Amino acid sequence: MKFKAEQIAGLLDGEIKGNPKVEVFKLAKIEEAAEGSLTFLANPKYLKFLYSTKASIIIMDSNFIPEQPLSATIIKVSDPYKSFTRLLEYYNEVKMMKSGIEQPSVISESVQYGENLYLGSFCYIGCNVKIGDNVKIYPNSFLGDNVYIGDNSVVYAGVRIYSETQIGRNCIIHSGSVIGSDGFGFTAEQDGTYKKVPQIGNVVVEDNVEIGANTTIDRATLGSTIIRNGVKLDNQVHIAHNVEVGSNTIIAGQTGIAGSTKIGINCLIGGQAGIIGHLNIGNNVQIQAQSGVTKSIKDNTSVQGTPSINHSDFHRSYVHFKNLPKIVDDISALKRQHEAESI
């Protein structure tokens, strides 16, 4: 698809310097842009590419004055980075303007769906599923019985949503994710084997949640595993049964959270963190990458390490750890000196 400079300027409330009819058909970084590309300049670090770029349109700060003539058409805006982000959002919306039901797909007769549904080929939609308006479900996805998906949500290719799962509005679920699989529950038998505990709860994902690729969220044993409004989960995160993740919390990739742990609002959890079960993590908590959390954490706390301790204590301790060989040598020298003086 092609866009003219005047169309882009109108969308961004920008001022055009150059040819308003020039067209672009792709977005690019300023150092890689070719003819027909749209790019932006926000970071002074990339100023050196301004006069050599082949881009047809450049978005830049309204206060910036080029030192040399530019061949590209300029669109001046108050905040180039935010304006370019807005364009990316618009481009993505246009690209995803799909609707209709592709075949082959298997759709139960009891399914209810709203306007502008897009259902890709080779999807399976179970009994009593309810789907809101403007929902996009890409090919090879599975929705079990009694699943609900709210308005404007996107389910990318190859997602598996088990029965009874509730997905809110404006959610994004990336490819390979599994929502509602059984929680990890077993009882030990007298003969040394393990018997599976039925997992009869569900998963509730509230509004404005994004779930990364190959992330797994287990259904509750009883009740619900709950992902609250605005949560963002990275790729390959595991949320176990009966966990609750508070609003606007962000969890980076390869993090694992064991069963029945409650996480507060506005938390930041770094990649590869591990949190054991049945803990209470407070609000505004920061858990640094690769931390192992073995006890509950109070509000407004930052922790690091395995087992995790206060973030500042960890850094003070690490200084001593790095100096441990020297400290041991000093102690050994003092010991030898003491023994010599005792003779």
UniProtKB/TrEMBL annotation:
Its EC number is 2.3.1.191. GO terms for biological process: lipid A biosynthetic process. It catalyses: a UDP-3-O-[(3R)-3-hydroxyacyl]-alpha-D-glucosamine + a (3R)-hydroxyacyl-[ACP] = a UDP-2-N,3-O-bis[(3R)-3-hydroxyacyl]-alpha-D-glucosamine + holo-[ACP] + H(+). One of its GO terms (cellular component) is membrane. Pathway: Bacterial outer membrane biogenesis; LPS lipid A biosynthesis. One of its GO terms (molecular function) is UDP-3-O-[(3R)-3-hydroxyacyl]-glucosamine N-acyltransferase activity. InterPro entries: Hexapep, LpxD, Trimer_LpxA-like_sf, UDP_GlcNAc_AcTrfase_non-rep. Keywords: Acyltransferase, Lipid A biosynthesis, Lipid biosynthesis, Lipid metabolism, Repeat, Transferase. Residues 22-89 form the UDP-3-O-[3-hydroxymyristoyl] glucosamine N-acyltransferase non-repeat region domain. It holds the Pfam family Hexapep. CDD domains: LbH_LpxD (cd03352). The active site is at residue 241. It is an enzyme of class 2 (transferase). Belongs to the transferase hexapeptide repeat family. LpxD subfamily. Homotrimer. Catalyzes the N-acylation of UDP-3-O-acylglucosamine using 3-hydroxyacyl-ACP as the acyl donor. Is involved in the biosynthesis of lipid A, a phosphorylated glycolipid that anchors the lipopolysaccharide to the outer membrane of the cell. This is UDP-3-O-acylglucosamine N-acyltransferase. It comes from Flavobacterium pectinovorum. The lineage of its organism: Bacteria, Pseudomonadati, Bacteroidota, Flavobacteriia, Flavobacteriales.
